[in-house]
């Protein structure tokens, strides 16, 4: 689908919802662009887990998801974070539809490593027909990063992975991975550009770790799958670190 921009909102999602954010989205819409939002919720999930005295365990940037953690994740994403985001968009005059895995199996996934990570999944299939219908009717889909297996088991899927897969399937021209930092940092310097080949190198050097790992790995896969441009940034008005297929010296 032409002229699609996918935005993954991460960190503290409410921090992304500034006046300038909505002005940029409005400008894109006036240019005929189609916008898709994928929201994370890690901050809010961890906050709720601490309140309920449930231990938080992260491995390689992914949340180990027990049965109890999955219940909390679903409650927070569908019951707290998504309504907060959809309400803000509606207040700014946008037509939006909040979506999760139970909406017509929009995201079908499989377990990544059930023994090691619990109910953490990876995306196998996206219902692009539903998304394209919503985009053609001038709606902004706002999607929670949850999936269902073909057997109907719920999965907690990294929001960066979901956003990248949706960008791939919709053949997006741009993908913004919003985070709480202005890009990728190396030796106290923010990188303006990073090639897919450099990502493996920086991973080996442990320059990239934690939550940035799945972000960059997903970005590399999206570029290889045909997404034209991927940006890792904290504001959609700035490109931050641009992920590219061409070689860059870092």
TrEMBL record:
<keyword id="KW-0808">Transferase</keyword>
<feature type="site" description="Transition state stabilizer">
    <location>
        <position position="8"/>
    </location>
</feature>
<keyword id="KW-0055">Arginine biosynthesis</keyword>
<feature type="site" description="Transition state stabilizer">
    <location>
        <position position="215"/>
    </location>
</feature>
<protein>
    <recommendedName>
        <fullName>Acetylglutamate kinase</fullName>
        <ecNumber>2.7.2.8</ecNumber>
    </recommendedName>
</protein>
<dbReference type="InterPro" id="IPR036393">
    <property type="entry name" value="AceGlu_kinase-like_sf"/>
</dbReference>
<dbReference type="GO" id="GO:0003991">
    <property type="term" value="F:acetylglutamate kinase activity"/>
</dbReference>
<dbReference type="Pfam" id="PF00696">
    <property type="entry name" value="AA_kinase"/>
</dbReference>
<dbReference type="GO" id="GO:0005737">
    <property type="term" value="C:cytoplasm"/>
</dbReference>
<keyword id="KW-0067">ATP-binding</keyword>
<dbReference type="GO" id="GO:0042450">
    <property type="term" value="P:L-arginine biosynthetic process via ornithine"/>
</dbReference>
<keyword id="KW-0963">Cytoplasm</keyword>
<feature type="domain" description="Aspartate/glutamate/uridylate kinase">
    <location>
        <begin position="3"/>
        <end position="234"/>
    </location>
</feature>
<dbReference type="InterPro" id="IPR004662">
    <property type="entry name" value="AcgluKinase_fam"/>
</dbReference>
<dbReference type="GO" id="GO:0005524">
    <property type="term" value="F:ATP binding"/>
</dbReference>
<feature type="binding site">
    <location>
        <position position="63"/>
    </location>
    <ligand>
        <name>substrate</name>
    </ligand>
</feature>
<keyword id="KW-0028">Amino-acid biosynthesis</keyword>
<feature type="binding site">
    <location>
        <begin position="41"/>
        <end position="42"/>
    </location>
    <ligand>
        <name>substrate</name>
    </ligand>
</feature>
<comment type="function">
    <text>Catalyzes the ATP-dependent phosphorylation of N-acetyl-L-glutamate.</text>
</comment>
<dbReference type="InterPro" id="IPR037528">
    <property type="entry name" value="ArgB"/>
</dbReference>
<feature type="binding site">
    <location>
        <position position="156"/>
    </location>
    <ligand>
        <name>substrate</name>
    </ligand>
</feature>
<keyword id="KW-0418">Kinase</keyword>
<dbReference type="InterPro" id="IPR001048">
    <property type="entry name" value="Asp/Glu/Uridylate_kinase"/>
</dbReference>
<comment type="pathway">
    <text>Amino-acid biosynthesis; L-arginine biosynthesis; N(2)-acetyl-L-ornithine from L-glutamate: step 2/4.</text>
</comment>
<comment type="similarity">
    <text>Belongs to the acetylglutamate kinase family. ArgB subfamily.</text>
</comment>
<keyword id="KW-0547">Nucleotide-binding</keyword>
